[in-house]
Sequence to fold (103 residues):
Amino acid sequence: MSKKHEHDIVPAYTPWKDTTPGGVVTESGNANYFKTGDWRAMKPIWNSDKCKQCLLCYPVCPDSSIMVKDKKMTGIDYDHCKGCGVCVKTCPFNAFDFVPEGE
Fold:
């Protein structure tokens, strides 16, 4: 299998009758293989200088896109962020800008 398709659950060109039904989790931990943030219309931009490291944004992110290391926010995982804006609304310190994708 080529490097491009090594994480595919169903190999390319599989007849539709041989595929798994949509929405079925076939194995644990496979969500990291699927980059789902490329369809967002709005994008949160984290301003580290305004951030007080309260981490209130972390538990409310529905996509686990707030990256944390050693109990400190380190950035946003844009491969999975869908641009819902919950982190922007939750932050009491206005540490996020919410801009159209592509800016």
User: Anything to note?
Assistant: The radius of gyration is 17 Å. Helices lie at 57-60, 86-90. The first strand starts at residue 42 and ends at 46. The CA atoms of residues 10 and 92 lie 43 Å apart.
